[in-house]
Amino acid sequence: MSETPPLPVIWLDESLLAVDKPAGLRTLPDGYDPSLPHARSLLEPLYGRLWIVHRLDKETSGVLLLARSAQAHRSLNTQFEQRQTRKAYCALVNGSPAWQEYTVRLPLRTDGDRHHRSVVDTRRGKSAVTCLRVLERFAAHTLLEAAPETGRTHQIRAHLAALGLPIVGDLLYGGAALPDGEAPLLGLHAAWLEVAHPLSGERLHLEAPLPPALQEALHALRAGL
Predict the structure, then answer these.
(1) Fewest beta carbons within 10 Å, which of 55, 123, 168, 192?
(2) Where residue 2 falls among pLDDT bands split at 50, 70, 90?
(3) Calpha distance 65→52 (Å, rounded)
(4) What is the DSSP code (8-state) at residue 28?
(5) Residue 129's beta-bridge partner residues?
(6) Domain total for the chain?
């Protein structure tokens, strides 16, 4: 068994494991082909049994938190359900909003069309809230901080698409790739997550740096390429 962590470790103790998940890796087994690699299958040989606390889309990089005991799993599940956690994503979007900060309150219905997207549905959708803040503006793109207060499937992607600001590379929701350059697989990164430690109650701030592909995309935009 290799002692080299298969994914960069952000936090490790007897209760918790937080890693920096790369874009393109599933959090859980694929429904059609369970043999495909996923985060838990790569980590359990080194760290023992793990419980998934929250999910990141396959295309999304960043902070992924896993529990190392059933007790820790229960504690973290409660925190997520009662919205006692805080988290934020970096999203590189097509377009430039008129605002500097904006809170999206558009209810979403999961698997709402033939493309299996989450869609805005004021009648049958579930409450969904995302707080947005501009971090950096470019000629035709914007880097946003997106802090979801609820945890609906594809929430940030669907909300930004509804605002006419689809994420770069998010073909499912209408996000074009960057011109004349290699865009990140998806310009969405789970930048940080805050939780209370299941045993000590200490407030943990878990952070993952922007992945190289997104850093390169931002460098090209700053250079006007």
Answers:
(1) 123
(2) very low
(3) 7
(4) S
(5) 105
(6) 1
Cα distances (Å, whole numbers) of residue 94 to 69, 154, 170, 186: 41, 17, 10, 12
Q: How far apart are CA 217 and CA 167, in angstroms?
A: 13
* Residue 3 lies inside a defined structural domain of this protein: no
57 is annotated as an active-site residue:
yes
DSSP E strand stretches across 84-162:
86-94, 101-105, 108-109, 119-120, 129-137, 141-148
Question: Residue 182 has what pLDDT?
Answer: 58
Would the CA dihedral through 61, 52, 166, 149 be positive or negative?
Answer: negative
Q: Has residue 85 been placed in a domain?
A: yes
Residue tagged active-site, from 13, 20, 33, 57: 57
CATH number of the domain to which 165 belongs: 3.30.2350.10
Q: Which residue has the tokens 């298969």?
A: 6
Asked if residue 91 is part of any domain, the answer here is yes
**What are the E-state strand segments in 3-118?**
9-12, 16-21, 51-52, 61-67, 86-94, 101-105, 108-109
What pLDDT does 95 receive? 96
Provide the domain limits for residue 153.
Answer: 9-222
Tokens of 77: 């599940």
In the prediction, which pLDDT does 180 show?
64
The answer to whether residue 2 sits within a structural domain is no
